[in-house]
Write a structure and sequence with these properties.
Blueprint lengths: L4 E2 L13 H10 L4 E4 L8 H9 L5 E12 L2 E8 L6 H27 L6 H8 L6 H10 L6 H9 L14 H10 L3 E4 L3 H5 L3 H11 L3 E6 L4 H13 L3 E5 L20 H14 L12
Parallel strand pairs: 1-2, 2-3, 5-6, 6-7
Antiparallel strand pairs: 3-4, 4-5
Helix pairs in contact: 1-2, 4-5, 5-6, 7-9
The protein binds adenosine monophosphate, zinc ion and fe (iii) ion (2 copies).
Length: 292
């Protein structure tokens, strides 16, 4: 099912395969008219994304980011929308996170060497391009070196949280990230919460984050089936969160990957997100007809 909105996507500035311009052109072809670029811990793709969005006239781009955080045993990702991405303090904070990503990726490459599955650091860097280096880039290097057949096999055998080459990276706590996003005027949304729900850690986290000022939760996400969507919608309602969503498009393939806009996100919660942004005075940080 196609939605005219998609609030979660990645470009070459993190671990997506498409440049911001190609990503937005693809989304536009798919019928998307309101989109957020939410690269991991980096905002450097936004100028190109705004240029590309501007070329369409009928396309609204929301400046966004996805930040990784930690709770014991699980990853928690938070999306920030309508952030003041030019804020100096915020950008310095992101620069420190990039440095820590680099150090951590080098350690994973060392572990792979010890495991007899060497990949050249230069190849990891090449796959990362101008972007924030992450596990998907190491996975691509593993595929290229012939150690695994696919990116998902690279995760299954080596790079998942429980994999032998995994290294933790410096992360902020979820509440700290919500506070950081709010400090730059953003609206914060909990991303892909199914794993957390299955682990039983979603409700206490929502209680904590709703208190810290969380706005939404991703309910319409990739291949989440109707019964999952229903469960998450109910939970969102209980914590007074907007039921939002996105494709989390990376362009890397994989069975659960959805094209931009290929999620059953309805416009009603998106309109409510836009209204909230308007009342906070940050709607103008997006560009395009919906930001007027
Ligand atoms: P990092 O931020 O370096 O820890 O990498 C996290 C990214 O790796 C996620 O955003 C996904 O894009 C990707 N990822 C995580 N698990 C898998 C998996 N099992 N298969 C493919 N990609 C994955
Ligand atoms: Zn990613
Ligand atoms: Fe994520
Ligand atoms: Fe993502």
């Amino acid at each position: 099912m196609g939605s005219p909105a998609d609030l979660h996507s990645h470009s070459t500035f993190s671990d997506g395969r498409l440049t911001p311009a190609d990503l937005i052109d693809l989304a536009h072809r798919n019928g998307v008219r309101i989109m957020a670029l939410t690269d991991h811990d980096i905002v450097d793709g936004l100028p190109q994304a705004f240029d590309a969005a501007g070329r369409h006239g009928d396309f609204t781009l929301i400046p966004g980011i996805e930040m990784s955080t930690d709770v014991p045993g699980n990853e928690v990702h938070l999306l920030g929308h309508f952030i003041d991405w030019q804020d100096e303090t915020f950008r310095e904070r992101l620069a420190r996170l990039q440095e820590s990503r680099l150090g951590r990726a080098r350690k994973m490459v060392e572990k792979l060497q010890e495991l007899g599955k060497p990949v050249a650091w230069e190849r990891v860097e090449a796959f990362a391009g101008e972007g924030a280096v992450g596990r998907p880039h190491i996975a691509l290097a593993l595929v290229e070196a012939g150690h695994v057949a696919s990116v998902s096999q690279a995760f299954d055998l080596y790079l998942s949280r429980t994999g032998p080459a995994y290294v933790e990276r410096d992360r902020l706590a979820p509440k700290e990230v919500v506070e950081l996003l709010l400090s730059v005027g953003g609206l914060a949304t909990l991303a892909h919460p199914r794993d957390l729900r299955e682990a039983g850690s979603l409700e206490p986290l929502l209680a904590e984050l709703a208190d810290a000022g969380l706005t939404g939760m991703e309910v319409y996400y990739q291949d989440y089936p109707p019964e999952e969507i229903e469960r998450l919608r109910t939970l969102a309602g209980r914590f007074a969160l907007l039921p939002l969503g996105g494709s989390d498009f990376h362009g890397l393939g994989g069975p659960q990957q959805r094209e931009p806009g290929n999620i059953p996100l309805t416009m009603e919660p998106v309109e409510r997100l836009l209204s909230l942004a308007r009342s906070k005075g940050v709607l103008g940080r997006a560009r395009g007809p919906a930001a007027k």
